Automatic annotation (TrEMBL):
Residues 54-197 form the AB hydrolase-1 domain. The lineage of its organism: Eukaryota, Fungi, Dikarya, Ascomycota, Pezizomycotina. It comes from the Eukaryota. Signal peptide: none annotated. This is AB hydrolase-1 domain-containing protein. It comes from Glarea lozoyensis (strain ATCC 74030 / MF5533). Pfam families: Abhydrolase_6.
């Protein structure tokens, strides 16, 4: 049997399909899952036939990626999409993330299951059966970020008529730089990296220990109430998070072109990725059955490490006019 360390090194190797390397077979997964969602409409909405955007976040984030509360929502995609352009939006925590259902991190929480979950949400919007939404949508656009873009791409390939258009941000069919993503993340077990968020020790229990044993120095170093933290997700082995803020900075933020407060928030609220999701990264089809409009947005050469590399090699999806 190959060791986990050896397989991890092979995952970071450039120029191979890691999914094919470790794939051992297929099985059908079925069940009842809870998906935590946020549905938004314009403050003033007079449209009789609005378009709804279904927003799928990437690895390391949850649905808040699309609606950051930072700086009075100055960086909120949802706020601009709704109040400026009058779209309706549906964002959601992917399975295994945030307040949505968690499951086995290897054989259950994989890309295939998550694509089916997105399809079900979309079908409910079109049928007028989405809970709390009294509307039937004729026009649905799917927007993804990074891994969420890969899932969106797979969604419209399997169900070509499910979407009227897709927007893929942080996306490329060139997978040459997935190794940089893996190495840059320096992924660690979530429950060890941030035990108060991902283990079975909650904030109140930690606060009691600190009140009993800690010195005044700890109060100086960490002047906040641990008891106010939400209940931890209690994730098992196989739920992984980026090692630290430096990993997020390397992967997603260009030096001198971002608000440092965003990096702090990203580290405080980072979300896990499962081994199963990493194993199914290579499941994106090379040819797509979708015939509708597609918009691809990347950071460009020397700015988008994951999709465009170091800028030495040239790819059309990373070039600007």
């Amino acid at each position: 049997m190959q060791s986990r360390e050896y397989k991890g090194k092979k995952f970071a190797k450039k120029g191979q399909n890691f999914t094919d390397v470790v794939l051992e077979g297929y099985k059908t997964t079925s069940g009842i899952y809870n998906i935590n969602t946020q549905f938004c409409t314009p403050s003033e909405d007079n449209s009789t036939n609005p378009t709804v955007q279904v927003l799928t976040h990437g690895i390391g984030f949850d649905k808040a990626y699309w609606d950051l509360p930072l700086n009075d929502f100055n960086y909120s995609y949802v706020q601009v999409a709704t109040d400026v352009f009058k779209y309706h939006t549906l964002s959601f925590d992917r399975l295994g993330v945030g307040k949505s259902s968690h499951g086995d991190p290897v054989n259950e929480i994989q890309s295939f299951l998550e694509v089916e979950a997105t399809a079900k949400l979309t079908q409910m919007l079109r049928a007028g059966t989405f809970p709390g939404v009294n509307h039937t949508y004729n026009t649905v656009v799917h927007v993804g970020h990074s891994f969420g873009s890969a899932q969106t791409y797979s969604l419209v390939n399997k169900y070509p008529s499910i979407s009227d258009g897709v927007v893929l941000t942080g996306f490329s069919m060139n997978s040459s730089f997935i190794g940089l993503f893996a190495a840059g993340n320096n992924l660690q077990q979530a429950y060890l990296n941030q035990p108060l968020r991902f283990s079975n020790i909650n904030g109140s229990q930690a606060q009691n220990l600190i009140d009993t044993y800690a010195t005044n120095l700890f109060d100086y170093l960490a002047p906040f109430d641990l008891g106010s933290l939400p209940e931890p997700q209690n994730t098992p082995n196989g739920y992984l998070v980026p090692a630290n803020a430096a990993a997020n900075k390397y992967l997603f933020l260009k030096p001198q072109y971002y608000d440092p407060a965003i990096l702090t928030l990203a580290e405080q609220t980072k979300q896990p990725v499962t081994i199963g999701e990493l194993l199914t990264l290579g499941s994106v089809p090379m040819m797509n059955n979708f015939a509708g409009p597609v918009l691809v947005i990347n950071g460009g050469t020397k700015s988008d490490t994951v999709d465009c590399g170091d800028g030495i090699e040239k790819f059309p999806e990373c070039e600007r006019d």
